Amino acid sequence: MRVFRFENEYRKANSYIIDYGSESVILVDLGGPSIDSLVEWLNEKSKKVGGLFLTHEHADHSIGLLKKDLLGSFKVYCSEYCGSNLSNPKRNFSLYSSDVPILDKAISFGAVYDNQTVFINGLQITPLHTPGHSPGCVTYLIGKYLFTGDSLIPGIPIVTQLPGGDKEASERSKEKIKSKINLKTLICPGHGPIVSGERYLSETHSLEWLQE
Q1: What are the distances in angstroms from CA 168 to CA 63, 102, 165?
Q2: Can you tell me the distance from the alpha carbon of 81 to that of 160, in angstroms, rounded to the nearest whole number?
Q3: What is the pLDDT of residues 34-58, one digit of tens each?
Q4: pLDDT the model gives residue 204
Q5: pTM for this structure?
Q6: Which of 2, 81, 110, 133 has its CA 20 to 30 A from that of 166?
Q7: Is 113's pLDDT higher than 60?
Q8: 136, 55 in Cβ contact below 8 A?
Q9: Domains in the chain, number
Q10: CB distance 148 to 29 below 8 Å
Q11: What was the pLDDT predicted at 132?
């Protein structure tokens, strides 16, 4: 299995392609506003999209849904909170930015639940409910990869001041995610580069030692 990271123009949020040896791939988040580089990759590799998993509803991770038709037909998966707010410009925050169009298009979705595994063409995807940045945040464990969205961004404090944010819930979610990280884990955050579990655990331990 290989993971490819695409950094989007809007707020430099990441979208990911998971290529697991099938004729289709899985996407995690779909930022934008342009998805041209992602479409080009799919066309070059002759791959179809087998499903999109959203970490949360905010526009920097979902605005690419306005161009969903360019990617063919596939199912969108996310938490119930995320799905019910995807088309609400106030909740996805597209209303408050001049850098992206308004995201108010109705999007059908399949709800995912904490620790209830989903299988897509044999690929095992385990959702972990990790609220704090948003009530609907989900982290996805797929093999050795951990797609944390904005629930954990190594080296960057999690934003909890936005509507729906909860600092205490964020701290609990951070610990929940950390419990899934080992030396072989690859952390794929919503912003910034992919970070190895070995590096994250080493830096976290060093920081905790300095704070003691």
Answers
A1: 28, 31, 9
A2: 17
A3: 999 999 999 999 999 999 999 999 9
A4: 83
A5: 0.95
A6: 110
A7: yes
A8: no
A9: 1
A10: no
A11: 98
Tokens of residue 5, six digits: 């990271």
Rounded Cα–Cα distance for residues 57 and 62 (Å): 6
CATH number for the domain harbouring residue 146: 3.60.15.10
Q: Record the tokens describing residue 117, joined without a space.
A: 């595994």
Q: Which domain holds residue 67?
A: 2-211
Q: Which residue has the tokens 């990869």?
A: 145
Q: Would you state the structure tokens that stand for residue 166, as one six-digit string?
A: 């909860």
**Two structure tokens written together for 27:** 């996407």
Q: How many residues in total does the chain contain?
A: 212
Burial label for 125, CB within 10 Å (0-12, 13-18, 19+), is buried
Q: Which residue has the tokens 């990759």?
A: 41
pLDDT digits (tens, 9 = 90+) for 52-90: 999 999 999 999 999 999 999 999 999 999 999 999 999
Using omega within 30 degrees of 0 as the cis cutoff, is the peptide bond preceding 135 cis? Answer: no
